Amino acid sequence: xxxxxxTSTGFTAREATLEDVKLTKVFVGDKLSLKVxxxxxxxQTDRALVAAGATRLGCSSSVAIVTESSWNKYQFELIxxxxxxxxxxx
Length: 90
Hints:
Layout: E1 4-6, H1 18-28, E2 33-37, H2 43-52, E3 56-58, H3 62-66, H4 73-88
Parallel strand pairs: 1-2, 2-3
């Protein structure tokens, strides 16, 4: 049985959008995790996609996202704990 579905591979000209995530979440609900890839280059996009229902992110810009100036160690730890909790709920 599948553990998650994806919006895209991240290797196409089209990037993942909030609309993609919201629509996919309508169909999969909480039964499956949702992996999003493509176009995730900053913290704001990361947070928006997670808020819309993404539980996994495929990011080639992970280092840039983690080291953005608005981040601090406490925020980073909260994000990691949140994601781990969401993954283990499946």
